[in-house]
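Late entry, evening session. Most of the bench is empty. Finally got around to the prediction I had been postponing all week. Sequence below, unchanged from the version circulated by S.P.
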Amino acid sequence: MPRLPVAATELHCERRGRGEPLVLIQGLGAHSLHWGEPFLSALERDFELIVFDNRGAGRSAPLSGDFTVADLAGDVLALLDALQIERAHVLGFSLGGMIAQELALGAPQRLRTLTLGATSPGGTQARPTAPEVVQELTAAVLSGDSERMLRTGYEIVVSPQFAADPANYAAFGEAARRHPAELELVMAQYAALNGHDVFGRLRGLQLPTLVIHGTADRMLDAVNGDLIASLVPGARLELLEGVGHLFFLEAPQRAARLIREHALGDHDS
């Protein structure tokens, strides 16, 4: 599918699978190829997947100006309008989870269910990325060595067990190298997520909500998942033992099963 004019930009979007629509929102510096084929294949048996690249990322139009998480949520809402989708299940990961929170709070009537993966509500109660992790990433960026940046980022967002298999890095690296994120985009996304704070609003969210978080997540500690689940009425928390930030790469079948059971479950009882 070509780029779709959406709000103030154009977004690359793909539709695959059959069933009720499920929108997948990626995280910081990532694009739609980062979901990985095992995860997408497991989901498309039950859903029509709406897989897109955030503004400025992947195959979407180049970045033009700064934005907020609320702006990115507006992009998703405009994408639903452009695709003529009245209501959809929504999965948001990391920064995408923050976008999904804003979307759900601003337009709850457009969502069937909400799944929040490895994300944070923001605010002073949330736990930010540890300073030593930020230092690792910063040193890699300042080195100017693209391979070092990729390797450092990878080793932070997956568990040591997953990183130990060279085949896993090969697949991750292939996706990342095909559409590398420009530093300008990463900095703009980082500024947006630093401004994200819905801590005081999540108690008003009245949507069936699933929270998924890996216990070995170094990017965003699993305490953030627990915090979100404690705030959203009726939310269910699933902790994946020993899994890192990219839970959908490390445990694609289990993650897909959790999302499927949640989205297609009976939420009226």
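Two things to note before I forget:
The chain has a mean pLDDT of 96.
The first helix runs from residue 37 to 43.
Will write this up properly tomorrow.
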